[in-house]
Amino acid sequence: MKTIVSAAALLAASLLAIPASAANLVLYTSQPNEDAQATVDGFMAVNPDIKVDWVRDGTPKIIAKLQAEIQAGNPVADLLLIADMVTLERLKQEGKLLAYKSPEAAQYDATLYDADGYYYSTKLITTGIMYNTSAGMKPASWKDLTRPEAKGLVTMPSPLASGAALIDAQTLAAVPGLGWDFYKSLAENGAIAAGGNGAVLKSVASGERAYGMVVDYLPIREKAKGAPVEFVFPSEGVSAVTEPVGILASTRNAEAAKKFVDYVLSERGQEGFLKLGYIPARNGMKVPDGFPARETIRVLPVNAAEALKNTDQDLKTFSGIYGSN
Amino acid sequence: MPGYVRTGNSQPPWLFPFVVITVLILSVLPLARLAMVGIAAFANGGIIDVLSAPSLWSATYYTIVTSVVGTMISLVIGCLFAFLLTLTDIRGKGLLSFFFVLPMMIPPQVTALAWVQMSGPSSPLLKALAIAPPLGSPQPLYSVGGIALLYGVQHAPLVYLALRAGLMTLPRDGVEAARLSGASSFRVFSDIILPLSLPGIIAGAAISFVSCTGNFGIPAILGIPASIFTLPTLVFTKFSAFTSRTFGDVAVLSAIIAMISVAGLMIQDRALRGRDYRVIGLSGASAAVELGAWRFLFTPILWAILSFMLAAPFFALVAGALVPAYGVPLTFKTMSLHAFEEILFRQAVTRTAFVNSISLAGATAVCLLVVTVLAAYMLTRRKDAASRIIASLIEIPYSLPGIVMAVAFILLFAAPIPFLHISLYGTIWIILIAYFSWFFAVSLKPVVSAFHQLDPALEEAARLSGAGFFRRLSDIIVPLIAPAAGASVILVFLIACNELTISALLWSAGTQTLGVAIYNLDDSGSSDLASALSVLVVLMVVIMMLLLELLAKHLPKGVVPWRN
C-alpha cells in the first residue's frame, strides 16, 4: 500500500508542477523575441503588479492561432501587438476588439490610429531592400532587383507568413510601373518567397542570397553589430506598416490591458522602441541611429479598406506567381 | 501450468472497465473524431478541393521520396554500427555506442539547426576556417537531399537498436560449429549472421520509415525556406493560415499521412511473413567475428562517421551561438556570449519552456506508469479477444505520426467539453492528454514484458492467503516489475522532453515546450538564440544519458538502450 500512496503522491506532485498560466495579461505579438521581451520588461518595470506573458509568431500565424482559439471558445490573448492595421481593421469589423480611447492618442497623427479607439499604431516599419556588402550591384530602386546581375540572388518574405510582406506586396502592386508584373519578373529572375523577415535577414547576411526585400530595422540593427549588410530606401518609395496595438473584446483584464496600451503609446514606451531601433510613431520623436531623417523617407500610400477587401485575392495572386502554399 | 488458475477471477471488478475507458479516451475517441471530420469533408464535397490541390500531391511525393532515401541512409549507417559493435572485437564499444545513440535523443530541429550552421555560406564554423562557399551559393541542405540525409542521421540509431536486439540472440553454437568446420569470418557472416539478422534489419527499416514520414522538425527547418513541403509541414502551414475549412482539410491530410505510415508497417509485415527465423541453441554471439588487422581500418571509419554526425554539427551550433551577428566570421575578437546571456537571463520563454517540457515529460512518464501497470496486469491475466483488441488499440497512436494525433486531439477538444463546459484547447492539459495517448505504447511495452515473466503462483498464493488486490500489487507485483517500470519512466521522459511535433500544433501562451521555443526563435530570425538554447538542450540530454549510464549498474539488462 505504501508504494501506491507514494506513487499517488508523486503523481499529485508532478501534476502540481505543471504551471497554470498565472499571467494577468497575455500579449500576442509579431515582434522578434528579444524586442517582445524588452517591451514586456519595460511595461512591467512601470507596472510591477501586472504580469505579462507573451507569444511571438508571424502575424498571419498569430491570427490563425487566435481564430482557432476563438472558434474553440477559449481565446487566450488579451492584447495584440502585430504588424499591420489591415489585420486589426478586420478584427474590429468582426467585433473581436475592445474600444478604448487612450489619452496618449493626442500626441499621434490622426491617420495612425482608429478614431473609435479600437487600435493604435506604435511605430513605423518600412520595407525596403537589403543587400550583402560583397554583392556586385548596389540596388537603388525596386526595379534593380529584376536586373540580370540579381538573377537567382533575390529573396523576400512570403505574405503568407508575414503581415508586413502582405502590405508590401499590396502597396507595390498598386504602384504604376511596378504592379504584379514586377513580382512576375522577379519570379522569372529566380527570386524566392518563403518564411518571414527573419529568414530574409539570415539568408542575405549569410550570403546564401545577395538581395532581399525586408523590414528596415533588422538589417540596420545587424549592420550596427557588424554584419556585412546595407539597407536602402528604394527610389520609388517604401511600403510601411505601423505595428498597431489593440485589446481583444474577450479580455479578462481590461484595466490592465488599457494600461499596456497607454504604456506603449507613452513617451517612455516609445523611447523603448527607439532604443530597439524602430522609428517611433509618436510625434516629435527622433529616429534611431542609422536611419535617414524621417521626412526624407518616402512612404507609398496604401488604402487599408481596399487592401482588406482584396487580401484573399492578393494572396492567391501571389501564391500563383511563387507557387507557395 | 496455465489452466489451473481460472483466468480473470483474481481481478477486481473495476479493473477491466477502467482500462477500457482509458483506452476509449486516449485512442478511440480522438481517432474516431478525426475520421468523422474527414468523412464530413468528403460528404461536403470539400474533399475535391483538397485532393485537387497540387500542394497535396507534391507534399505526398516529397514525404515518400525523403522517407525512402532517408531510410536507406539510416540502414547503411545503422547496420554498419550494429554489426561492428555487436559482433566484432572492435575497441571502445561502450563509448561508440553511447555516442551513436545520441542523435536519436536530440530533438530533430536541433539536429537540423546544427547541420545548417555547419554547411553553406552561412556557416560561422566554415567562415572561421575561411572555407565558406562564395556569395549566392545555395545552402545545400535546403533540399530534398538535405532532408533525406538528416532523416538518415536522425534515425540510424533506430535501425542500430532494432538490429542489435536481434544480433544479441544469435545462436553461438551455430557460429562455433561453422568455425570448427573451417569457415572464414566472411563465410560465417554471409551464410549465418546476415540471413538471421534480416528480421532486425526489416524491423529497423520499418521503424525508420514511419519515423521519417512523421518527422516535423527536420523538414520544417530545411524544407520550408526552400518551399519544399512534406505532409506534416503542410498540415502545420494549413494551421498557420487558419480558415473555416482548415479543420476539414487537415483531417484529410492527416488521413493520408496515416495511410503512408500504415503502408510502411504493412510492407514490413509482408516481408517477414512466411519465413521462419526461430533458432535453437545458446544465444549471445559476442565477438563472433575477429577483425584482426581490419580493426585498424574500421575503428577510424566509425569514429570519423561519428565526428561527422555529431561533433562537427555540435561545434557549428556552438559557433552559431557565439557570433555577434549574421555573416560575421567567428574569431576570438568577435566572439560574444550575448546569446547565452539573453537566453538564460532575459528571455522569459526559456524558463517557461524548460519548466513545461520537464514537467510535461515527468507527468506523462509517472501518470502513464500507474495506468500501464494496471493495464498490463489486466492484459496479461485476461487472455481473451477483448484484451487483444485493447492491446492493439493502445499501439495505434504511437504508430501514427505525432501530427496526426495532435490534429485528432484539436478536433476532439476544440469545443468545450460537453456538460463540464471546460475548454482544454489552448491549455497545457491538451498537450498532456495528447502525450498520454501517444506515449501509452512506449510506457506499456517494458511493463508488459515484465508481467509475462512473472510467476502467477506467487500472486495466487497471496490471494489464497486472503491478500486483497492492492495488497498483492504493492507487496508482490510492484517490487518484481520495478526495474521494468523504471525503464518505462526513463524512456518516456527522454522522448517526451524533446518532443516537437505534437506541441507545435497544440502550444499557446505560457505552454511553449523546448521544441517549440527553439523552432520559434529560429523562425523569427534569431538563429543565434535558437543555437544557444539548442546547445543547452544537447547538454541536458547528455547529462541525462550520463546519469542513466551511472545508474546502469543497478538497472536490469536492456533498460539502457546503448549498453551491451
From TrEMBL, chain A:
Gene3D superfamilies: Periplasmic binding protein-like II
Keyword annotations of the record: Iron, Metal-binding, Signal
Pfam name, any one: SBP_bac_6
Annotated signal peptide: 1-22
Residues that bind Fe cation: Y217
GO biological process terms, semicolon-separated: thiamine transport
GO cellular component, one term: outer membrane-bounded periplasmic space
PANTHER family per the UniProt record, alphabetical: ABC TRANSPORTER SUBSTRATE-BINDING PROTEIN, THIAMINE-BINDING PERIPLASMIC PROTEIN-RELATED
Protein name, UniProt field: Iron(III) ABC transporter, substrate-binding protein
Automatic annotation (TrEMBL), chain B:
Compartments in which it is found: Cell inner membrane; Cell membrane
Membrane topology: Multi-pass membrane protein
UniProt KW Protease keyword: no
Domain ABC transmembrane type-1: 60-268, 354-548
InterPro entries per the UniProt record, alphabetical: MetI-like, MetI-like_sf
Pfam families from the UniProt entry: BPD_transp_1 (PF00528)
Chain ranges passing through the membrane: 14-32, 39-57, 63-87, 94-116, 141-163, 188-210, 216-235, 247-267, 305-327, 354-377, 398-417, 423-444, 480-509, 529-548
Gene3D superfamilies, A to Z: MetI-like (1.10.3720.10)
GO CC annotation terms, alphabetical: plasma membrane
Keywords of the record: Cell inner membrane, Cell membrane, Membrane, Transmembrane, Transmembrane helix, Transport
Gene Ontology terms: biological process: transmembrane transport
Family: Belongs to the binding-protein-dependent transport system permease family.
UniProt-recorded name of the protein: Iron(III) ABC transporter, permease protein
Organism the protein comes from: Rhizobium etli (strain ATCC 51251 / DSM 11541 / JCM 21823 / NBRC 15573 / CFN 42)
Name of the coding gene: afuB2
